[in-house]
Design a protein that fits this description.
- This protein is α/β, with parallel strands linked by helices and 194 residues long.
- 34% of the residues lie in helices and 18% in strands.
- It has seven helices and seven strands, in the order αβαβαβαβαβααββ.
- Strands 2-1-7-3-5-4-6 form a seven-stranded mixed beta sheet, sandwiched between helices.
- The longest helix has 15 residues.
């Protein structure tokens, strides 16, 4: 399970942490597996959406430095310490899926390119990965945007544009991106907060 991989990456680098898993109304054994791996589990009785799960985890976290990651095994946990280190000179560090091992979804590629191009024009900054689910930031920096951040999928996209529009320093750390573990869901069920 991803909890052990995240704990190993943080622990081996001497980073004090907690791992929060938000079970957003999932029908599988997410909560039970996370508890077995000694994560702190927040449960929504019904699916409230990706952004809602992230907001709940961010508010519940005891540390000011927050790292979010999807729970589907697509993001490399060993890169989390690098994101945290880069946060010393940035307001948000995004794990940009521009590494050597990134599978391409050809049906989505044109739409993603158009959205990325448009976002870059709006922000006035290059955005190598607009909606990566792996990123590090400080809680107070992001909390101020909660009223405009969606409870659904566009949470990370809106957050990126809001920070850039307000002249916060957003940096991109290249990462690989792996094939999903399990089936894709139209509405994601869980998110990690650490």
């Amino acid at each position: 399970m991803q909890v052990e991989a995240v704990r190993s990456a943080l622990g081996s680098n001497g980073i004090e942490h907690e791992i929060i898993v938000v079970d957003d109304g999932s029908c599988d054994r997410t909560a039970e597996e996370a508890l077995r791996a000694h994560a702190r589990v927040l449960r929504h009785s019904e699916n409230r959406g990706y952004g809602s799960a992230l907001k709940a985890g961010i508010l519940a976290a005891k540390h000011d430095t927050i790292v979010i990651s999807d729970a589907d095994g697509t993001y490399p946990s060993d890169q989390i310490p690098h994101l945290i280190a880069e946060l010393h000179t940035a307001d948000m560090v995004v794990g940009a899926r521009t590494g050597a091992d990134v599978p391409h979804s050809w049906p989505r590629k044109p739409a993603k390119w158009v959205l990325g191009w448009l976002a870059t024009r709006i922000a006035g900054h290059p955005i190598p990965d607009l909606n990566s689910g792996l990123r590090a930031f400080r809680r107070d920096c992001v909390k101020q945007y909660f009223p405009i951040l969606s409870n659904r999928f566009s949470f990370t996209t809106t957050l990126t544009l809001a920070l850039l529009a307000d002249d916060y320093r957003v940096v991109y750390h290249p990462i690989d991106y792996y094939r999903r573990v399990g089936n894709s869901k139209i509405v994601p069920g869980t998110s990690w907060i650490s």
